[in-house]
Design brief:
Layout lengths: L3 E10 L2 E11 L4 E5 L6 H8 L7 E6 L2 E2 L5 H6 L2 E4 L11 H7 L10 H11 L1 H5 L10 H13 L5 E5 L7 H16 L3 E6 L2 H6 L3 E6 L2 E7 H6 L1 H7 L3
Parallel strand pairs: 3-8, 3-9, 6-7, 7-8
Antiparallel strand pairs: 1-2, 1-4, 4-5, 9-10
Helix pairs in contact: 3-6
This protein binds adenosine-5'-triphosphate and magnesium ion.
Length: 236
Amino acid sequence: MALLEVKNLDVSYGDVQVLWDINLKIEKGSIVALVGSNGAGKTTFLKTLSGLLNYQKGDIIYNGESLKGLPSDEIVKKGIIHVPEGRRLFPDMTVEENLLMGAYHRKNDPEIAGDLDHVYTLFPRLKERRKQKAGSLSGGEQQMVAMARGLMGRPTVFLVDEMSLGLAPLIVDDLIEIVHNINKEGNTVLLVEQDVQLALENSHYAYVLDTGKVAMKGKSEELLKNPEIKKIYLGM
Ligand SMILES: Nc1ncnc2c1ncn2[C@@H]1O[C@H](COP(=O)(O)OP(=O)(O)OP(=O)(O)O)[C@@H](O)[C@H]1O
Ligand SMILES: [Mg+2]
């Protein structure tokens, strides 16, 4: 059984339907990529998984249980944690305060302090900058804060929207290495990217979203060799 399974999902904004009959599976321990051009519906899909948007048709099954109708805070408590596009940090709060916001729903869990130490081992730059205001960091560092904050919520499924957008290649390399480390620690990751090459090179399985529909799916290494993908998304 997949850790998370989406079945026949339709999502609309008012009268405008954006996602059409989406079927997708995320196996425990994997890195799955969801790729597609600007406006394909990737963020809409993540917001639906996180309980921020309702859906008209279909179902989302987590660990064998439907998430239909659950509010977003209940979904977060299950460990389905969304690192949003554009990072959405609290710029006037310190790095550490931002990270602790990620554990907000865990209230007085005595393990929060240990998790903070652990997150700092994954992101040593954030440890150095922990007393700095988040708004004063570089774009790449802010992306690290957004991801580290997500990890403080103890994800079982880690949803990362447009991690690489607008960042220099060297920083993206660092972030990708962190994604692999997070995955090796047992976390399941959904990488949502406009950068199709990056996402396919760093995932096990992938779905290609085109104007709200799953146009292709398969093992990432095979999709990388697919002539249609090469032509449309890799500019070859
Ligand atoms: N709040 C909203 N109300 C109405 N339409 C919306 C809303 N948000 C997004 N859309 C529309 O839904 C479609 C999918 O948008 P979405 O943001 O999910 O795409 P995306 O794949 O994440 O794009 P990008 O790569 O630019 O992040 C687009 O046509 C967009 O204009
Ligand atoms: Mg988006």
